[in-house]
């Protein structure tokens, strides 16, 4: 095979946090169980239990305190991708947010020195994420609370069948807040789908610092929706059931320590020297899966070319749209208030890790992950990730040529994608997150929404009985699926073939042909505009046709085009809440679909660091007001994919997956089709 004819091939090596501990972790690897244990020991020693309050420090967040990007990049570039890994990566540190004596403490721990580097008491608004440990205790409180027991007997219900659920309370303009969370309860008796059986009209407030019920309300009585027709467990359903899906291709990759590598495919050029790109896949209790250092090994240029320094879901904002007293406050920030990364372990089931053969194809490989529990102990999520190749039957490219005399040419290549999948279960909802790496260089992120709707009980069994707005859809007897939105805001630190990038809007503009030189009256042309400051890069999609490209202004193709990657947006949903409405002030980062900001290590969480009961004073919308320069700089693209969800009857009792995804697609990044020679 002619070396000059070799085409670029996509291959990603992936570093994972596997249960097998690596003696020398990649600096972006998540904390290992023994590192979490070390953090627990060091922090607990520094914050001893006070026997007056009898409150231990709660570990609300334990994560990697990432080294500075420049340190990572220089470490990476100064060392070849060889094993064993070079000996002097940047120091490993952990960042902890601990709730202690009603204050949020920020603690940085140096893992090699085994000591605390710094501590700080957070003074601003808002609270850290709720922990599963806290939720477990709080949701038990009603069961021994006398007024609640009275409410149950009034409804003829038995406390043994009650299942309580926590709801973050938001902020509605109060001057003072406490760390208050709302609790509402549901009834099991005969179904696993207790979400379908809310004990409507009853709610209470729990102060999470004192772990006490501080407010109680029993406002009205409506029928408890029936258990019948709500079940989803296969074992409880009558036949016939659907056949199992089957994938009969073997794996095209191997997992070796923290590295996932594609195995050579036929037609890859017979040369696997330097073959492979790199993706470090991290895991964080707040973000869930994190893709880092994704690069593409370009066989033509014979080097790794960086694409995505980091990508993850920074926030998932889910405001419900029922203005009644019990429901108006349901405006969740799932990442900042709960965390997308320990969703697998729900407080109810203790495990809903990926299920081989149904959550992932049969030949998938699985990897565990860990997070720190309330008391700092590492908790394993078995099978948190699965990795597999997807042959969905798509065509990578093709052409049939019939115009040449006596010849009939057909060339066609099947699409193949490497998928890294995780599932975050946030109480009733399940979010499937797929990061897909295509051989053509595209990186796609697809979310799937499934699970159980947030359901409200009501007197109605037929829409004819409904005289006023019910703020949702009657999906079953006495059961309303309440209207809501899902806004997924992604943090995308693209480093397109280098750190310094610019953001270019290529607007498509109609031109009228005025001189009559041709019979056409109009055509469109491209007018490109490079964003100079943050203000130039706030974009509401769909208003005017444009291509949004992150380019490296310092590099060009042989043809002279700027090397870039463009954003192909997924589902769009502009927020409909008024901008002065409190939830929207807190979620103001959804006011635009796209924002660009200069890289800043502290600007990572789009809704702010402390989101529970936050006031919107630490969101991207506020940071962006500084209108910083973003041209030819290390920049971060913030992109929101949105869904307005009007529930329908098919969503009951469990919702069929609703998917949406966006793509980061090479645009003048390669000299030509990089998968031309793939077979
Ligand atoms: C617990 O509190 C009592 C009285 O406040 C004090 O005398 C005692 O030393 C404390 N014990 C510990 C272990 O801190
Ligand atoms: C409630 O349920 C428990 C456990 O199933 C049972 O022992 C008890 O008798 C029930 N109480 C009432 C009032 O039905
Ligand atoms: C549970 O449901 C069954 C069947 O509907 C009913 O007979 C029973 O009383 C219920 N038990 C409780 C504790 O609600
Ligand atoms: C539901 O119907 C019952 C019985 O007719 C009535 O007592 C109750 O007030 C109704 N509740 C609501 C919220 O309309
Ligand atoms: C898994 O891959 C192997 C080849 O590596 C293949 O023989 C086998 O049939 C596959 N299994 C399934 C269930 O698809
Ligand atoms: C980085 O972000 C933080 C939080 O928004 C801000 O306080 C700080 O000034 C920023 N640093 C720079 C260099 O812009
Ligand atoms: Cu929904």
From TrEMBL:
Gene3D superfamilies: 3.10.450.40, Copper amine oxidase, catalytic domain
Catalytic residues identified in the record: 334, 429
Signal peptide coordinates: 1-22
2',4',5'-topaquinone sites (modified residues): 429
Cofactor note: Contains 1 topaquinone per subunit.
The Copper amine oxidase N2-terminal domain, residue ranges: 26-120
Subunit annotation: Homodimer.
Name by which UniProt lists this protein: Amine oxidase
Organism, scientific name: Phaseolus coccineus
Highest classification ranks of the organism: Eukaryota, Viridiplantae, Streptophyta, Embryophyta, Tracheophyta
């Amino acid at each position: 095979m002619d070396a000059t004819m070799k085409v670029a091939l996509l291959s990603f090596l992936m570093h994972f946090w596997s249960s097998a501990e690596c003696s020398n972790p990649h600096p972006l690897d998540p904390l290992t169980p023994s590192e979490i244990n070390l953090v627990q020991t060091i922090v607990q020693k520094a914050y001893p239990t006070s026997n007056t309050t009898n409150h231990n420090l709660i570990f609300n967040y334990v994560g990697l305190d990432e080294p500075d990007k420049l340190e990572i990049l220089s470490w990476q570039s100064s060392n070849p991708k060889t094993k064993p890994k070079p000996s002097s990566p940047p120091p490993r540190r952990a960042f902890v947010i601990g709730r202690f004596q009603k204050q949020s403490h920020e603690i940085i721990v140096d893992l090699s020195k085994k000591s605390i580097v710094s501590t700080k008491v957070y003074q601003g608004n808002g609270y850290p994420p709720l922990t599963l440990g806290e939720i477990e205790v709080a949701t038990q409180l009603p069961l021994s609370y006398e007024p609640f027991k009275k409410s149950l007997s009034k409804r003829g219900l038995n406390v043994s069948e009650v299942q309580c659920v926590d709801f973050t309370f938001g902020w509605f303009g109060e001057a003072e807040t406490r760390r208050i969370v709302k609790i509402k309860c549901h009834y099991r008796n005969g179904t696993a789908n207790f979400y379908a059986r809310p004990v409507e009209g009853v709610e209470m407030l729990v102060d999470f610092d004192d772990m006490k019920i501080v407010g109680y309300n029993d406002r009205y009585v409506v029928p408890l929706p029936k258990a019948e027709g709500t079940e989803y467990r296969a074992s409880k359903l009558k036949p016939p059931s659907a056949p199992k899906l089957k994938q009969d291709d073997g794996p095209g990759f191997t997992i070796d320590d923290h590295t996932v590598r594609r195995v050579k495919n036929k037609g890859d050029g017979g040369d696997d020297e330097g073959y492979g790109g790199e993706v470090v896949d991290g895991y964080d209790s707040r973000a869930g899966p994190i893709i880092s250092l994704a690069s593409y090994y370009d066989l033509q240029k014979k080097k790794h070319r960086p694409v995505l320094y980091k990508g993850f879901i920074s926030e998932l904002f889910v405001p419900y749209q029922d203005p009644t007293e019990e429901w108006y406050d349901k405006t969740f920030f799932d990442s900042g208030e709960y965390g997308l990364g320990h969703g697998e372990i729900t407080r109810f089931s203790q495990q809903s890790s990926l299920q081989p053969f149904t959550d992932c194809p049969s030949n998938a490989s699985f990897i565990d992950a860990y997070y720190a529990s309330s008391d700092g102990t590492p908790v394993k999520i078995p099978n948190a990730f699965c990795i597999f190749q997807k042959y969905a039957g798509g065509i990578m490219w093709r052409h049939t040529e019939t115009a040449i005399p006596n010849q009939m040419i057909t060339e066609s290549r099947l699409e193949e994608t490497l998928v890294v999948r995780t599932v975050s279960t946030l109480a009733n909802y399940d979010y499937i997150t797929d990061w897909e790496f295509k051989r053509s260089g595209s990186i796609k992120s697809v979310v799937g929404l499934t699970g159980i709707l947030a359901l409200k009980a009501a007197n109605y069994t037929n829409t004819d009985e409904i005289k006023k707005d019910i703020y949702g859809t009657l999906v079953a007897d006495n059961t309303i699926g309440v209207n809501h939105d899902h806004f997924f805001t992604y943090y995308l630190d693209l480093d397109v073939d280098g750190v310094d990038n610019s953001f270019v809007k290529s607007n498509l503009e109609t031109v009228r042909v005025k001189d009559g030189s041709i019979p056409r009256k109009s055509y469109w042309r491209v007018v490109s505009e490079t964003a100079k400051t943050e203000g130039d890069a706030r974009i509401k999609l769909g208003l005017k046709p444009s291509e949004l490209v992150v380019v490296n202004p310092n590099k060009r193709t042989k043809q002279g085009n700027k090397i870039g990657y463009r954003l192909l947006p997924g589902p769009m949903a502009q927020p409909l809440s008024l901008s002065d409405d409190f939830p929207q002030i807190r979620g103001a980062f959804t006011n635009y679909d796209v924002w660009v900001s200069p890289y800043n290590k502290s600007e990572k969480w789009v809704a702010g660091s402390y989101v529970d009961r936050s006031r919107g004073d630490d969101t991207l919308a506020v940071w962006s007001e500084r209108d910083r320069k973003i041209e030819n700089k290390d920049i971060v693209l913030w992109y929101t994919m949105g869904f307005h969800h009007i529930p329908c009857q098919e969503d009951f009792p469990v919702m069929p997956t609703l998917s949406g995804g966006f793509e980061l697609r090479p645009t003048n990044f390669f000299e030509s089709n990089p998968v031309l020679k793939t077979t």
